[in-house]
What we know:
Largest sheet: 10 strands, antiparallel
Helix content: under 10%
Shape: globular
Oligomer: single chain
Number of helices: 3
Number of domains: 1
Amino acid sequence: MALGALLGLFGGVVTAAPALAGRPKWTFNAGQPFTLPASICGFKIRVSFPVDKEYAKVLKSTNGSTTMLITGRLTLSNTNLSTGKTLITNLSGPGKITTFPDGSVTERAKGHTGYLLSSADARRFGVPRLGVTAGAQTISLAPDGSVTSFSLDGHVLVNICAALS
Length: 165
């Protein structure tokens, strides 16, 4: 997970650009449970995947970029470890993550998608720090991992910190 970036948990069918070469196969993209630190929401959040049928395909292009296509059904369980309150969200995208030769990254997703931003980036883009969106979401990262842009043609479905407070 890149700091300040999308959690990388979304799915759906995406079409590769014609410049992408090879015949890669879809592989199971198993999510592993993890705990978000209290510095994000003011309390620790345990993240797990009650439904994880997400698949990924990595494509390499002739220009040196690598694109990961993500598809499938994914639900995310977020549990406030202080209260036990749990929120289940659908993150069944689709998604496409492109890493360019200079190390910059563009993450594009449609449908329901999760994201995590730094506090400063959340303020800059006018969205909650940790959330789920509906619609088209694009996040661009500089080679150092800093967020250079966040756009949303849709809306924030859930502010996860607020929902678990």
